Amino acid sequence: MVGYLAKRQIPGVQLDPANPSTYIYVEKETDVNIATDLTKAFFNAYDTAVLVSADSDYSRGRRVC
Fold it and tell me: Whole-angstrom Cα distance, residue 29 to residue 47?
């Protein structure tokens, strides 16, 4: 499983697909893939898992609705 990059318009800037300064890329589905891989621990697939991420979805105290 692999995540992907999605183009997102920069707020307040007219989107021009030919001009990279008018959009940014956002990572998608990566956190879902990581969580899916970590469920393998339930089946004792590995001894230790270390998750290192700059994604705020994994920060302590984050509320998921």
Answer: 25
Q: Contact at 8 Å (CB) between 16 and 41?
A: no
CA separation for the pair 41, 49 (Å, rounded): 8
Return the closest-CA partner of residue 26 out of 6, 53, 42.
Answer: 6
Structure tokens, 23: 């959009």
Identity at 1, one-letter amino acid code: M
Q: What is the pLDDT of residues 3-50, one digit of tens each?
A: 788 899 999 999 999 999 999 998 887 777 777 888 888 888 888 887
